[in-house]
Amino acid sequence: MGEDKRLAAVVALAQGMAAAHGSREAWRAAATGACRALGGSFAALSVWERELGRLRVLVNVGEMASDEEEFPDGEAYPVHQFPEITEFLHERWAGGGEPNAWVETAEGPAAGRRPGYVHQRVAALRRRGRGCCVVAPIVLNGRAWGELYVARPAGQPVFDRADADFATVLASVVAAGIAQTERLEEARRLAFTDALTGLANRRAVDVRLDEAVERHKREGVVVSLVVCDLNGLKRVNDTQGHAVGDRLLERFGSVLSLCGAMLPGALAARLGGDEFCLLVVGPGADEVVKAADELCRRAAELELGDGVACGVASTEDPIGPVRSARRLFRLADAAQYRAKAEHAAKPVVAGRQGPDDPVVRLADAPSREGHAERRRFRGRRL
Predict the structure, then answer these.
(1) How many other C-beta atoms lie within 10 A of the C-beta of residue 123?
(2) pLDDT in tens, 285-303
(3) If you average pLDDT over every residue of the chain, what do you get?
(4) Is the pLDDT of residue 100 over 80?
(5) Is the pTM of this model over 0.70?
């Protein structure tokens, strides 16, 4: 491959990773770009998990064998099967610089390799009908991160030293792309995560609820919202300090997460202050109410605070048409306020008190009337 083509391949790989949305797309773009750049038929990207002492495959692309899949759940190899990992990622570059890629063939260890052990890469090449591979270590932030692996089928030209040098360049481009992806994902995580409890935040709920209601309108999927207000937080803050109040919030967040786990795919979130919620898409209303009931029971057993006021609204209950996220939220919010006003030990569920359900009427009322009613409920809080 000429210099111009190789430069174009490097640019294409970098652009592919930059355009990826999330880690999986970035991994696929890295492996696919390297495979094309090196004229391979197969490529894989793997990460070195130091704490587990293994090399775990993140993605496979190209012509795969029967025991390979694109995003494998359990394809991992103990590091002791690959002495060259520690050899290349420690000894060879401990004094500075970065490790170079190397070539293996199905005929046996490449020139310069120490004999004396069964080479797992050679065995894998033979087993999968491949003739050669080039392995390029990936270094991220000065530490070994993993490796880029590109193979050709048996009968095709064997990778040469120039290919290995080019693979080293590609691995550096992949490392830069991975670093960028990790930074973006961390930024996204922080943007949608409550810093104190580790739960989702209000922004995450708004985005997911809008999407869920659109699915409900298109497909009729059940969407439910559990809104809860933690009782007694102000008293704890005033009498025992905000550090203890934060501990109460964290403990309730754990309880909310535990109860949310009863409902597949539920999103547990802290809306702000002492207000939390569960957003549930799919499970029926009765399942959601059961989880909310368990939430109330567990919250009442916390050593701090005074339990929780909990309101539930589900599109499966008789609450009228739900055409917007705002309406479902107002119904759940109104139910929560009523639970607070009545010191209810169990959740209040919108639509389950008959056609004159005050919760439904409150949610249907004009905003000014709704706020006035909420102020009346707030005046009766514990």
Answers:
(1) 12
(2) 999 999 999 999 999 888 8
(3) 83
(4) yes
(5) no
SS (H, E, C) 244-309: HHHHHHHHHHHHHHHHHCCCCCCEEEEEECCEEEEEEECCCHHHHHHHHHHHHHHHHCCCCCCCEE
Q: In degrees rounded to 5, what are phi and psi of residue 116?
A: 115, -5
Distance from the Cα of residue 4 to its chain's centroid: 38
Judge whether 120 and 55 are in contact, CB under 8 Å. no
Give whole-number Cα distances, 199 to 66, 85, 193, 211, 250, in Å.
40, 38, 6, 19, 9
Looking at the chain, list the stretches that DSSP marks H as alpha helix, in order from N- to C-terminal side: 3-18, 23-37, 83-89, 120-127, 161-191, 202-219, 233-240, 242-260, 285-300, 325-341, 358-364, 367-378
pLDDT in tens, 119-155: 778 888 888 999 999 999 998 877 788 999 999 999 9
Q: Which helix (H) or strand (E) holds 56?
A: strand 54-62
> Is there a contact between 382 and 343 (Cβ–Cβ < 8 Å)?
yes
Q: How far apart are CA 165 and CA 102, in angstroms?
A: 8
C-alpha dist (Å) from residue 376 to 78, 94, 252: 64, 70, 26
CA 356 vs CA 220, 285, 339, 362: distances in Å: 25, 20, 17, 10
Both tokens assigned to 20: 């990826």
Per-residue pLDDT band at 86 (split at 50, 70, 90): low
**CA 131 to each of CA 109, 167, 263: distance values in angstroms, whole numbers, following the listed order:** 12, 17, 49
Q: Quick one: average pLDDT of 273-295?
A: 93
